[in-house]
């Protein structure tokens, strides 16, 4: 696992010292080794975390002639099969990265179709003066790029590397900020800085001279259908088991993040069955029992005899916020970033690689919104609106987002919406009406329009795979883990597992109030009963209490900054309502807090190098 950065100029050789500075901003992604290499009009930088091929894994790697070179961040789990297929080539080392230039020679820029794994890469073809940037199918590894004012193209694994460049504009895109307020992340290929883009998941960016060509190389294609339920369940067992086994290849210590949910529990069970030594597992929890899942993780750890580590998040949350803000160089309002960041730090003290259960909800339809979307179509709109209005008048429904009353009121709200609006109502943090009240007249951008899903479970899965998964969950996981030089692997996001999950019949996705039906049934025998029978809970954080107690003064102080974007009376009204207990705005306040900390830490931070 690594970090990459580089510059390409169509007119002159870039300054390698600038790439040195870019690498300096992402040393945490690869603290073991670093390099900057100039190839005429292209300069490639690399920071390496040693995981496989510890002695001969230097990057960049090249073909025999030396005119095709590449840097790589990630893992290609099929690298041994690829090396066998490329038997006519001279491939140095024993790892995955050296196969890239030779695959390109064989297949051109579409060579990434043959890679099975997670990655972001840059390849320079000197003979054609062509730069190829590519990102894995689902977006597990980040890759950002932009054109500088002088026409130079810059790319990097993280924004903080690009921010080392003296010519990079730092204009905040307020339309992207509006999207962030709606969704808690900046969607699609945008970032919150105007001009900085992401290479989308499953895409290749081909750069030649002053032109760029973006090509999609993967679209999720559901697997072939099976004839019986038993056959489906056997395919799920086989596919997930194989995905876990592929991800156990490492020349360094390996463990697992264990949340207590069924996804990570299944991953740990399969790891234990495939490993000769006890698996190391890592769990995070809270003193508040409503948000604490350690007892479920303990049940799995006990069953499989893991070497189990627990981390209890203490009350001094404010002391962690500066470190969190420094790590997240893109606005992210997902409060689960904090426990993920802390448990990754704990795990890295013992292992270099950890497997996680990310992706089970998207691949196997585990979200409550999938069930709610279907059930809502059966509730008459007028009745739903009357019921929602009545429930919202109950103080407990307004104050406690995890309460049954709150969830019932929100469900009826959704049921009273049109099918086109329904997904947005389920996903929005700041609804459109509240965003209109929040923005000042002078700053209000055009409101983001959420993409409506197809009105079936597969449609919801596909939309989440394109939006929420890469924009929120995978960004959160990558930044939190790599901030501590921890490689995170997600077997349930193997693209073949995802395509199998998409193909399942609806009866094996959701039934009644139960999601992930096929995954639960396929692995029920491997899980303790209390884990197998659990419903979907999510990674909750006690934001409501934090903003009334632990974070109250800090939040008031930080949100007192007036940038002219937001109405002061609306922000103060949110704080007052929350602190008084009249409404729970914890999630919204967290988004505003993280947005302001992002601006201070990254947009306003000085450039550390000169041209």
Can I get a quick summary?
With 611 residues, the protein is α+β, with helices and mostly antiparallel strands. The chain contains 26 helices and 19 strands.
Question: Given the structure, what is the number of helices?
Answer: 26
- CATH first level of the largest domain: Alpha Beta
Report how far the terminal alpha carbons are from each other: 30 Å
Please tell me what the overall shape is: globular
Provide the structure class.
Answer: alpha+beta
Under the CATH scheme, the architecture of the largest domain is 4-Layer Sandwich
CATH H-level homologous superfamily name of the largest domain: Aminohydrolase, N-terminal nucleophile (Ntn) domain
Strand composition percent: 15-25%
* Residue-averaged pLDDT: 92
Q: For this entry, what is the oligomeric state of its chains? A: single chain
Total domain units: 4
Helix content: 40-55%
How is the CATH topology of the largest domain named?
A: Glutamine Phosphoribosylpyrophosphate, subunit 1, domain 1
Number of strands: 19
Major sheet strand order: 2-3-1-9-8-10
């Amino acid at each position: 696992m690594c970090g990459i950065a580089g510059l390409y100029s169509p007119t002159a050789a870039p300054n390698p010292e600038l790439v040195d500075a870019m690498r300096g901003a992402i040393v945490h992604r690869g603290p073991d080794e670093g390099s900057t290499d100039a190839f005429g009009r292209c300069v490639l930088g690399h920071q390496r975390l040693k995981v496989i091929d510890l002695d001969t894994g230097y990057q960049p790697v090249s073909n025999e002639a030396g005119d095709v070179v590449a840097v790589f961040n990630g893992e290609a789990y099929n690298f041994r099969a690829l090396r066998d297929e490329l038997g006519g080539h001279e491939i140095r080392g024993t790892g995955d990265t050296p196969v890239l230039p030779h695959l390109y020679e064989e297949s051109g820029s579409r060579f990434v179709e043959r890679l099975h794994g997670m990655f972001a890469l840059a390849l320079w073809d000197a003979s054609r003066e062509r730069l190829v940037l590519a990102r894995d199918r689902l977006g597990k590894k980040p890759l950002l790029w932009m054109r500088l004012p002088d026409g130079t193209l810059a790319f990097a694994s993280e924004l903080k590397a690009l921010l080392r460049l003296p010519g990079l504009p730092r204009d905040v895109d307020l339309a992207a900020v509006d999207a962030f307020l709606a969704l808690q992340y900046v969607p699609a290929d945008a970032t919150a800085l105007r001009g900085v883009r992401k290479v989308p998941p499953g895409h290749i960016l081909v750069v030649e001279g002053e032109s760029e060509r973006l090509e999609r190389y993967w679209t999720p294609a559901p697997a072939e259908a099976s004839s019986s339920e038993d056959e489906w369940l056997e395919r799920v067992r086989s596919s997930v088991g194989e995905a876990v086994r592929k991800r156990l290849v490492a020349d360094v210590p390996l463990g697992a993040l264990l949340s207590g949910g069924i996804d990570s529990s299944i991953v740990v069970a399969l790891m234990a069955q495939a490993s000769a030594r006890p698996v190391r597992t890592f769990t995070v929890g809270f003193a508040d029992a409503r948000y604490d899942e350690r007892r479920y993780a303990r049940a799995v750890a006990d069953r499989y005899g893991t070497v189990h580590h627990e981390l209890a998040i203490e009350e001094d949350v404010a002391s962690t916020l500066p470190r969190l803000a420094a790590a997240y160089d893109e606005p992210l309002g997902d409060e689960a970033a904090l426990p993920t960041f802390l448990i990754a730090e704990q795990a890295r003290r013992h292992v270099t690689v950890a497997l996680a259960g990310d992706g089970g909800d998207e691949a196997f339809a585990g979200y409550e919104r999938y069930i709610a979307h279907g059930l809502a179509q059966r509730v008459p709109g007028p009745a739903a609106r009357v019921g929602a209005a009545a429930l919202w008048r109950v103080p407990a429904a307004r104050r406690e987002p995890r309460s049954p009353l709150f969830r019932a009121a929100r469900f009826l709200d959704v049921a009273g919406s049109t099918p086109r609006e329904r997904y947005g109502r389920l996903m929005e943090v700041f609804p459109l009406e509240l965003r209109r009240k929040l923005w000042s007249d002078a700053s209000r951008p055009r409101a983001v329009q959420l993409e409506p899903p197809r009105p079936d479970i597969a449609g919801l899965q596909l939309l989440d795979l394109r939006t929420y998964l890469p924009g929120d969950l995978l960004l959160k996981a990558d930044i939190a883990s790599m901030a501590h030089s921890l490689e995170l692997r997600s077997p349930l996001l193997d693209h073949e597992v995802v395509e199998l999950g998409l193909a399942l019949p609806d009866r094996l996705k959701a039934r009644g109030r139960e999601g992930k039906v096929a995954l639960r049934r396929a692995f029920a025998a491997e899980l303790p009963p209390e884990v197998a029978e659990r419903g979907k809970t999510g990674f909750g954080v006690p934001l409501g209490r934090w903003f009334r107690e632990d974070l109250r003064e800090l939040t008031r102080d930080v949100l007192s900054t007036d940038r002219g974007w937001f109405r002061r009376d609306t922000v103060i009204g949110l704080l007052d309502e929350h602190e008084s207990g009249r409404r729970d705005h914890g999630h919204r306040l967290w988004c505003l807090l993280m947005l302001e900390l992002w601006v201070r830490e990254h947009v306003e931070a000085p450039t550390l190098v000169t041209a």
